[in-house]
């Protein structure tokens, strides 16, 4: 089945993963900037990472015939030092006009701290000034509900932000409704150990509809499954979903959201 992988940290995956994704039907992969599994020691480390996301990784993906797009930001896990974070954010504009950059992300909150909030606001402003899409990471487990509320407050306080151009990722049963009711898109991240499973994601789709939802594997350097988007398609098929309805969630929804960037040519 054809699908888009809208959120995958491919810099930490192997060529076998690229091969498996393409043969499973992946038509494009999008990679938000995130934590590398360790804290970078200088803003220069982020400069190199942004080069990797905008130049090296697209070329690696192209060897498997897979179009690669990215999002740029400093992630909330490394935004606790505002001076350091501001230096990193100042590096981003020089990369924004590279042809595969979809927007600003994944920004958001990790521990819901005051410093994280300050840098979230700074990056929402960056996106607004450059009229870019936003991809938001929401915190894990017990911090998720509060962090999602705080993030929505920041986004709604900025009159330049159109909710239809923002996706709030890692939603779960207790946060999906508030995201959709406020007009934002919602992403479900399918992890084997935490966050959503494919079965829970399909439950959510069957409860809330599939108008402004996408699914992603977020596959990174930790335990994760790069094929969890097609695995979700398989779960839908088991439950009797029509092929066209599966295609709408796994392919057409991400295309519809990402087309707004003006940088994502798939239709
Ligand atoms: Zn991520």
- Percent range of helical residues: 40-55%
Radius of gyration over all CA atoms, rounded: 17 Å
- Domain count: the total is 1
What would you call the quaternary organization? single chain
CATH class: Alpha Beta
Number of DSSP strands?
8
Number of helices: 10
Instruction: Report the end-to-end length measured between terminal Cα atoms.
Output: 16 Å
Stretches with pLDDT under 50, minimum 5 residues: none
What does this structure look like?
With 267 residues, the protein is α/β, with parallel strands linked by helices. The protein has a single domain, classed as Metal-dependent hydrolases (TIM Barrel, Alpha-Beta Barrel), CATH 3.20.20.140. The chain is built from 10 helices and 8 strands. An 8-stranded parallel sheet has the order 1-2-3-4-5-6-7-8. Strand 4, helix 5 and strand 5 form a beta-alpha-beta unit. Helix 3 runs parallel beside helix 5, helix 5 packs across helix 6 and helix 8 packs across helix 9. The longest helix is centred in the first third of the chain and has 20 residues. The chain is globular, with a radius of gyration of 17 Å. The mean pLDDT is 96.
In short:
The chain is 45% helix and 15% strand. The protein contains ten helices and eight strands. The site of zinc ion (ZN) has 6 residues, from loops.
Topology:
Blueprint: E1 3-5, H1 15-24, E2 26-31, H2 43-62, E3 68-72, H3 82-91, H4 93-96, E4 101-108, H5 114-129, E5 133-137, H6 144-157, E6 166-168, H7 176-181, E7 185-189, H8 198-208, E8 213-216, H9 228-238, H10 243-259
Parallel strand pairs: 1-2, 2-3, 3-4, 4-5, 5-6, 6-7, 7-8
Bound molecules: zinc ion.
